């Protein structure tokens, strides 16, 4: 699974704080069988996030995992930028992550994270907190390989269940 981890954080991009979530997300993805070929940090800028997502989709990455920018602050724009790139929603992934988050904190319902499909790439938004990444990645890990295989299957290659 050719994978990219995109950290969306103005403070990290300006080197005012350390990126803890991106490296953790990459590590967890590799443990789940992903081949993390790219890691990038971008500020909370709608156009830039959208551009970078399109770049990785166009470069045929199977999986893009974002971290950060999914809350309620005015500069949390990751879900909107993701929706601009996604062609088909995959709401069950984000719903499962929110359900797990609610087991840990009522603030889980404040997540606006989305997940979806652009061409043959799956994009999943994670929160910016390393603690939340650690809690939520195990929810999606069991389905990633199957989801990627199913999405990459050519039309007419057999059942898609």
Explain what the structure shows.
The protein is of the alpha/beta class and 161 residues long. It has one domain: MoaB/Mog-like domain (Molybdenum Cofactor Biosythetic Enzyme, Chain A, 3-Layer(aba) Sandwich). 45% of the residues lie in helices and 20% in strands. It contains six helices and six strands, in the order E-H-H-E-H-E-H-E-H-E-E-H. The chain has helices at 10-13, 21-31, 46-58, 78-85, 91-104, 130-152, and strands at residues 2-8, 35-42, 63-67, 88-89, 115-118, 121-126. The chain has a six-stranded mixed β-sheet with strand order 2-1-3-6-5-4, with helices on both faces. A hairpin with a 2-residue loop joins strand 5 (115-118) and strand 6. Helix 2 packs across helix 6 (130-152). The longest helix is centred in the last third of the chain and has 23 residues, at 130-152. The mean pLDDT is 94.
What's this entry about, in short?
The chain has 161 residues and is α/β, with parallel strands linked by helices.
